[in-house]
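Section: Multi-chain targets

For targets with more than one molecule, the full set of components is provided together so that the structure can be written out for the assembly as a whole rather than chain by chain. Components appear in the order listed by the source. The example entry contains two components.
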Amino acid sequence: MSQAQMVKRPAMTRSVPVQIRPGRLLLYASFILLTMVFIMPVVWLLLTSLKTRAEYGSYPTMLFPAIPQWSNYPEAIIVRPFFKLAWNTLQIALPSTILTVLSSALAGFAFARLNAPGKRVLFILVLSMLLVPRMVTTIPNFMLFSKLGLTNTYWPWILWGLSGSSFHIFLFRQFFAAVPKDLEDAAEVDGCSRFRIFWQIFLPVSGPVIATAAIFHFQWVWGDWFTPNILLSSENTTLSVGLGTLYLDPKGMTIYPLYMTALVAYLLPMLIIFLVGQKYIVQGIVTSGIKG
Amino acid sequence: MQDIARMVREPTIKTRMGRRARREARDFYLFTGPWILGFLGLSLFPLAVGLLTSFTNYNGLNLDDIKFVALRNYTRAFESEDFTISLKNTFVYALFVVPVGNILALILAGMLNRALAGRAGFRTIYYLPSILPLAGAIQAWGLMFNTNAGAVNAFLSLFAPGTAINWVNQYFILMLLLFAWWQLGGAMVIYLAGLQGVPEELREAATIDGANSTQIFLNVTLPLLTPVIFFQAVLGIVGALQILDSAILLYGRAGLSGTVSLPGDLYMYMVYVYSQVFDFQRYGFGVALSWIFFIIVLVLTMILLFTSRYWVYYEVAQEGEKVK
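Its structure, encoded as tokens over all components, is:
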């Protein structure tokens, strides 16, 4: 458990005989209670995904399916066009994430390490864009994209990605500002170009921040409903918009257990990415100091 | 955060630029170039287009015979009942969600900020809901509170058989609040990082001086966390006021096109804007609504910024203060 070591304070490494105090017991009891509260919706989703349609609609509510319907999974994911929507989503989320992270890292590096007239004003602009409500720019952007014929294409995400994001610029700026100056000086004496300094010295040490920014952004795009809903038609749309429409019976009613199965499949990639990357996220938050 | 406050307050000193400095400036603009272009094309220009549109009767199709209506869209907004109700709903929501959510996140971070077996595991579990993609997380939430198929009614039925509360219809704003609190793990992790940044010596010194743990928290830990709390408060309020996706998705949509099915008295402000623009094609009116909102957010942020100098504590005295 490297994370546990990372946060362990020196005072705690002294070994003391284990005593079970009532305070500690109470703390653990509340931790366990909270755990149940926090994971209940996910557990319930899993249970529901294994029910039959009759069990889903039955009253009183059944806690567990009589026989777990594992066949819901191939039915929801392979038989119905789940992967088509997943592929659409990936086609948007992946380029968008890569471009946003790169562009934000470049700008964050410049704000942390380079001086230029106008820098202060620009940085105030970066910060103030955090306060501009999304809708104020999105409606006119939608109007412009329609006029340019970019609706129902993935170009808007490319353009947004290229221009980076205020939040991630801030994140990178905070991180790069804390990197010691010596490295860069040595490289500059050797006649390295600034881009090479950025690419070969700064980026390789910023793994946690890159991971943090990438995971946050990917998760945001994967879960965003509003933007694909206004920009894309139903055959090009993402999982977040289209998933509810895939699981209809011939009468047009939603087959809920299948829909819930698909939701599990929709959440799962993010869950895996998070569990793999959370060590870096925590590091990224600590070192880049969103905290202050 | 302190260096940011300083950087924003202190004007850069103007000097004559040598060749080296000029090259540095050129590199600066090359590196920030993509962002600057994006800012101009995808933020500033749309803002201007939007502002102009808000003074017209544009409906998406009438570009040829568009009419200038001066401030009529704005006056119409203030006369509209949906405007008042949605604004009220949104403020009730934000007023609860931000303070309560942050206090709970801080308490949880405090509980986790001690040496405990298995605390990395607990942290992961509490953090997890906040990283679930929104569109799916809100559906899982809706399922939990579903009248017949939900776990909450099933649980309550153990004590009161036959409980069949339609949570989403009857307690809509409460459901959204609980959903937001379910996702407080994001703030918790940031507070945890902040707590770990509090130097141990300070707490030890206070203990030697005879302070108890409550006093240490109030007089040592909390002041050092105020920059974090400030950051969280500003972003939290701006975010909470903009609630849109979760409100529409929790209630369900009418049809497959994403039309809003919420009754008007349950509108959140952005839901109202969304439905005016994308369901009814009232672009001029919708953009005007969004600008009213923008101004409200700006005023709120200004108030927070102004009061911050009385309660946000910076370790280093702010040299910029007097220069200003």
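Strands of chain B lie at 253-254, 259-260.
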